[in-house]
Amino acid sequence: MDLVDTDVIHANFKDTQLMDCDFSSFRVKGACFTDAQGLTCQHKQWLRVYEALNIPA
Fold first, then answer.
1. CB neighbours of 39 closer than 8 A, spacing ≥ 6?
2. pLDDT over 90 (residue 7)
3. Per-residue pLDDT at 40 exceeds 80
């Protein structure tokens, strides 16, 4: 999935399958990733830096 320059502020990605995503141009502050699957360690770190919420361990 490649959603260039996408604003997902406050979006709910609970229980989603996020394989091969490019979050580099997302605006994610406040987006919820509870139990999201397929996130790499790099994705998780990036999401935390940009203030996404409930990122799986």
1. 18, 21, 33, 47, 55, 56
2. no
3. yes
